[in-house]
Structure formats: structure tokens, C-alpha cells
Amino acid sequence: MSFADGSLAGRRVTVRVPGTTANLGPGFDTLGLALAIYDELTVAVRDEPGAFVEVDGVGAGEVPTDETNLVVRAIAHTFAAYGQELPGLHLTAKNVIPHGRGLGSSGAAIVSGVMAAKGLLEGIVEIDPLGLLARATELEGHPDNVAPALFGGLTIAWVTPEGPQFKKLIVHRGVSPLVLVPEETMSTALARSLQPESVPHADAIFNVSRSTLLIAALIQSPELLLAATEDKLHQSYRASAMPETDRLIQALRAEGFPAVVSGAGPSILVLCSDPGQRLAAADLVAARTATPWRSLVLAVDFKGATVITHPDEVE
Ligand code: HSE
After folding, report:
1. How far is ligand 1, taken at its centre, from the CA of residue 103, in Å?
2. How far apart are CA 21 and CA 184, in angstroms?
3. What residues does each domain of the chain span?
4. pLDDT of residue 297
5. Coiled-coil intervals in this record (predicted)?
6. What pLDDT is recorded for position 3?
7. Which atom of ligand 1 lies closest to the CA of 234?
8. CA 189, CA 186: separation in Å to the nearest integer?
9. Are 195 and 237 in contact (CB under 8 A)?
10. Candidates 144, 207, 262: which one to mutate for ligand 1, based on the most atoms within 8 Å of Cβ?
């Protein structure tokens, strides 16, 4: 289904974008996994200039509803990148991905906007997968959340002078993610400010070994996940900003669960090697903390972001 002509008037698109978990332990700013939890967005071109934003669910009453809204900024950024004039827009967002918890909500908002722009510009500008990744990464700053949000599955993303690149992989069917979400939030900017300028060479080697092993564990040998999720590049530097997360990860790992910080935190990702492990991991956390942690048993999303155009509405 596609839009009838080259005019933007009356165009309407619906976008669905998965949440993501990035880093996966050793793969800092590189590895990401799409999870079956989705934000949905409808964008309609309207006659009046400017943006009108309605938000339902997570972030309602909190996120901006004008041109400073991150989704609107991503649409505007994409239109500008392809030399297109931005029309008046009416956005309706239904958000489910928790904000500020390390589940890729800002990446999902950016990908929502980029995909909406792709849909709205259908037949006028064709934006290929690397173009989508480039536009999203320009706003997010690093590609490890936006790559799986766009393409689904497990993604390896890397940056070159020609722009960000990605490889999508299908994870082993036994890999069973559990995400434990605290009430507190964490700012990615704060987490990144805690990173040192340089790291010991031995630590870099440690992470090269674990992250390459992690690819094997995720696509072929889930029994290696505990060894493969060790990290020396980011989690220890950030632990002081999320001590409860750090404490619970140590407790989970001591019992053999492959637990890591999800993205920049403070949620915990447990990459269980079979579905039954997830309940035991959630029980362990519930028994070791006095504060409420929400358990999200999430499948891996294999599809990534989708956009549907509504040609019937074009007059
Ligand atoms: N790789 C990023 C970080 C993910 O850990 O800072 C969060 O955006």
C-alpha cells in the first residue's frame, strides 16, 4: 500500500517500534537486542503549521507536546536531511516502553520519528536502511539502541567515516531475556559522564574476548552466557550512580545468572539460557531487595520498527 501522489496533504502513517537493551555487558555502544515491548505512533499531516502532540501511557503529562518533542525533532531532522519542507503535524503516541530505565525509550522515540518521516515521504524520497540508521544515530549519538529498534533481533553496530553500519543476527531460541525495572530513573548523560577518557589495555582485551564470545553465546551456545557477559568498560565506572542495581547484579551473577546493566541502567537485564531460569532470577531479586522491582519477561523482537501508510485517507 502506498500514497497516491507526491503531495503530503492528507497523509497519515502509523509506526510501531520495539524497546531495546544495549551493551549486553561487554558490547558497550556496539551490541543491542530488540525486545517485544512497543511504542506506537500515528502521525497525520494537518493544514495548520507546527506540531500538535498527544501522548497516552508512559510520559503522558511529562514529555513536551510541542516542536521540542523528541519524536517531532526526529521527523524534522529527517525531513531537513532530505531537503524537504516540514508540514504541520498531528502526532498521537501510545507509549509502553518505560522512560529513563535503560530500555531504549529515547532511541524508540527517535526511530519513531525517522520511520514516520520515511512513511510520510514515501514516493517523494526513498530512505534506505543505512539512511534510517544514519539519521537516528545523528540524534542519539551512538547506534547501539537505534539499530535493533530499527531492524530487530541482535545487532552489531559500528561507526565508519561513511556513517554507522550494522549487522543483524538471529539469536538462539533458548535465549530468554528478563528485564528487572526499578522505580528510580537514570540519566544516560549522567551515566556517560562517569566514563573515563581512557581505559587500561588489559581491560580493552578483556572486553574484546567477552564481546566476541557473547556473539557465539547468543547465536549458538547460550550455556556460555555467564562468562560472555563479563565487562570492564562501563558497569564498574557507573556503579556508584546505581548502587542497588550493582548489588543485585553481583547477587544474580554469584548464583549463575547472566545479569548485566540494561543500557545505561538502572534496569537489570538477565540473559537466561532457558525460559525456566527467568522465574528463579526474578524470585532472587524479590528476596534480596526491599524496594519494588518490576519483572518484564520479554521475548526477542525479530522484526524491528514497522511503518504503515494509510493511502485511503488521501483525498
Ligand atoms: N551504550 C549506551 C550507554 C546505551 O551505555 O551509554 C544507552 O544509551
Report:
1. 10
2. 17
3. 12-169+301-313, 176-297
4. 96
5. none
6. 74
7. 5
8. 9
9. yes
10. 144
Would the CATH topology of 12-169+301-313 be identical to that of 176-297? no
Q: Quick check: 289 and 175 in contact, CB under 8 A?
A: no
CA 172 to chain CA mean position, Å? 20
Q: How far is the CA of 309 from the centre of ligand 1 (A)?
A: 32
Residue given cell 520519528 in the structure block: 113
Residue nearest to atom 4 of ligand 1 (CA): 263
**Nearest to 19, CA basis, from 157, 192, 179:** 179
- C-alpha cell at position 99: 522512560
Predicted confidence at residue 92, as pLDDT, reads 98
* CA–CA distance, 14 with 45 (Å, rounded to integer): 12
- pLDDT attached to residue 112: 98
The reported pLDDT for the residue numbered 1 is: 53
Question: What gap in Å lies between CA 134 and CA 144, rounded to an integer?
Answer: 12
- The type of residue at 14 is T
Q: Which of 145, 186, 188 to mutate to test the pocket of ligand 1 (most atoms within 8 A of CB)?
A: 188
Q: What is the pLDDT of residue 315?
A: 42
Sheet (strand 268-272) strand order: 259-261, 268-272, 176-182, 293-297
Domain 176-297 - what CATH class? alpha beta
DSSP labels for 123-150? TT----HHHHHHHHHHHHSSSTTHHHHH
Q: What is the mean pLDDT of each run of 10 residues along the chain (315 residues)?
A: 75 98 98 98 95 96 95 98 97 98 98 98 97 98 97 98 97 96 95 96 98 98 97 97 97 98 97 93 95 96 97 53
